[in-house]
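Late entry, flavin mononucleotide complex.
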Amino acid sequence: MSKLLYIIGSPRQDASRSAAVAEAFLAAWRRAEPGLDVSVLDLWREPLPEFDGDKAQAKMTVITGGTHEGAAATAWEAVKRVIERFAQADQHLFTVPMWNGGIPYRLKLYIDILTQPGFLCGFDPARGYSGLLGRKQAAVIYTSGVYAPGVAPAFGLDFHSSYFDWWLRFVGVTDVETIRYQPTLLTPDPERAFAEAVAGAEAAASRLARGSRAA
Ligand SMILES: Cc1cc2nc3c(=O)[nH]c(=O)nc-3n(C[C@H](O)[C@H](O)[C@H](O)COP(=O)(O)O)c2cc1C
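Prediction complete; structure with ligand written out below:
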């Protein structure tokens, strides 16, 4: 049975448009695979450790081949617990609203906690970085109020999906379904745009469910 971790990037709960699309995605996957095991990680409600000096020190200790002591050892254990929950899932569903051209800060904090050498990424001085999370599948629902691909720069630039998609590939996730509901606000027909996003989400869920059964 597949284990899917749904990571909520918007704090807007019932008002969240990305969450509404995510619900359609999950319903479609459950229709395809009734036994799907879904766990929810709401980045705005669950406590996450601050990625502060002790965590940064612990990361640099790993990079330089040292061993953790004192506060850095405790910090590293907290980081590892977050990584373990993430890595145990076979599939990840993310809702990613655009905030000021980029991603919300709780999602960036989550990325900073997760992206650790030896767990999600490796490094070779000659070949550079490599992602360690092969064999995972991800679906990402991007929303923005005004920005949409192809708009004039006065309506925004995309440091949002470009950054997040880069990060997924950086950690080794290459089987990625991208679903866009953009724009959610500056559109003459928000309901039609929503219906199109839902249709895209349902199709993506069917593809991923098929892929997970074949794996
Ligand atoms: C703090 C904040 C910053 C935002 N920045 C942008 C932005 O840079 N560009 C844009 O098009 N929309 C921006 N928006 C609008 C949201 O992306 C839009 O409302 C989207 O639907 C949010 O997803 P959600 O409904 O799942 O929360 C911003 C919204 C908030 C709350």
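Strands lie at 3-8, 37-42, 91-97, 121-124, 128-131, 137-143, 175-181. Will revisit in the morning.
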